[in-house]
Amino acid sequence: SDSAPGVGPALAEPARLRIELDHPLRRGRIRVFVDDTLTLDERLTGQERKKALVFKLHGGSFRDELEVAPGLHEVRLEIAWDDNLKVERIVGNFRAGATRTLDAGLGRIRRDLSLEWK
Q: For the whole model, what pTM was predicted?
């Protein structure tokens, strides 16, 4: 082949996955899997936001960036707290050198996990 040396796919610039999670937890754990490979495992913490008359509201945010290989990937988020585990999946296409932001939210009332690309 007459392609220039050193420009094979092995040297492709990585893509980046930015995770932005907002959650109502006082404490918990986030795990991120890319194609079933654990790529992030971190603790979540939240601060007291405001005191209602009867109960306290907590809230926190988590931000991180991961490198991923360019191409199509399934991203799986697992949020765990107390005896609860919420899992959601989303598929995204990643371009070399580009960053994609995954907007994740854990609902305050029903604690449903939502994922969408920003």
A: 0.84
